[in-house]
Amino acid sequence: MxxxxxxxxxxxxxxxxxxxxxxxxxxxxxxxxxLEAQLAAEKERAQSYLGSWQxxxxxxxxxxxxxxxxxxxxxxxxxxxxxxxxxxxxxxxERALHSVDAHLVGLTWVDGIRLIHRxxxxxxxxxxxxxxxxxxxAFDPTLHEAVMFGEGEEGKVLSVVQRxxxxxxxxxxxxxxxxxxxxxxx
Length: 186
Fold this sequence. Notes:
186 residues; alpha+beta; Nucleotide Exchange Factor Grpe, Chain A, domain 2; three-stranded antiparallel β-sheet; 16% strand
């Protein structure tokens, strides 16, 4: 090649590469370290982006799980609040049925009230509500509320004053009980 051709080749520059901030490729046999350094920098940047994306994806999954747990908790609390408000109605129906006069026992409206009571009780069972076992059991302050002491085996529940209920292992209302033992003396 002549020197004139060399000068013309030197004037031709890849403008796309120059505008993108990349250096024009050097003549064959030149130094390739800048390209390797750029490649390493770009790989590092890509790894950084990948790491950021993975953290964002994990954060999103955690957020979705937390929102689902909160929804379930709100539903459980709403169900528990409804049941707690329903329990006094069931108590009143039970007291009414226990105090029905013997002359009224065969009447259809009394049987209707008894059927309504059964529907309420079955609604509680379908909701997962369980009655807290008390009579004859050892007194447990997490499940029972002592309202009186009576003569009997110490620490045992003698009788139930008001039934208690649990929902999913959580006490909705403790059982009010009479506990055996020595009554406090005045």
